[in-house]
Design brief:
The protein is α+β, with helices and mostly antiparallel strands. The chain folds into two domains: 61 residues, Orthogonal Bundle (434 Repressor (Amino-terminal Domain)), CATH 1.10.260; 101 residues, Jelly Rolls (Sandwich), CATH 2.60.120. The strands form two sheets. A five-stranded antiparallel β-sheet has the order 1-2-8-3-6, with no helix packed on it. Strands 5-4-7 form a three-stranded antiparallel β-sheet, with no helix packed on it. It is elongated, with a radius of gyration of 24 Å.
């Protein structure tokens, strides 16, 4: 299979949100050259293509191996966020279907009186988040704080921790942890 260099360059340029003029400016070439390459009216030498790709920036090897037909999923509608929580704690995982995640992003909901359990949680990595609505009591490494909307947290996850909603309203949190534990 032969790569359509012009169409591939156009797709890469658009993927990075660059106009022909902007890419030409970044690469130090004329926008006419970019246009001619994209229209397959000129076949660039390897050095010319490398110079153009330096404006992205992208390595030649990446350009030739990038599979634009297999676009990774970027957007995840609410209906596609699996609930990996239990009981009165809902944990909606963003990108749950992705095979190679290096972090977990959660949209969390704690019903009044809900908690992550009597036993403190521990795992490798780090986690952080921001309370969007309501209040949550967070215990980390022997210290306990009550956080409300707008408050955030960040800690090493090997410290024993627990989340409890001690208020009468639902608590909503957006959080991330790396590496993912789910």
């Amino acid at each position: 299979m032969t790569l359509d260099v012009g169409a591939h360059l156009r797709a890469v340029r658009q993927m990075y949100g660059l106009s022909q003029r902007e890419l030409a400016k970044r690469a130090g070439v004329t926008n006419g050259l970019i246009s001619l390459i994209e229209q397959n009216r000129v076949s660039p030498s390897i050095s010319s293509l490398k110079r153009v790709l330096d404006g992205v920036p992208m390595a030649l090897a990446d350009f030739f191996t990038l599979d634009l037909a297999q676009k990774p999923q970027v957007f995840f509608p609410k209906a596609e966020l699996p609930n990996i929580g239990a009981g009165r704690v809902a944990l909606h995982l963003v990108g749950g279907s992705l095979a190679k995640r290096s972090m977990a992003i959660l949209h969390e909901f704690y019903a009044p009186g809900a908690d992550t359990g009597e036993e403190m949680l521990t795992h490798d990595g780090e986690e952080g988040g921001v309370v969007v609505r309501g209040r949550i009591e967070l215990s980390v490494g022997g210290e306990t704080r009550s956080l409300s909307a707008g408050d955030g947290y960040y800690f090493r996850s090997n410290l024993p921790h627990r989340f409890r909603n001690v208020s009468r309203e639902e608590c909503e949190i957006v959080s991330a942890s790396a590496p993912p534990t789910f």
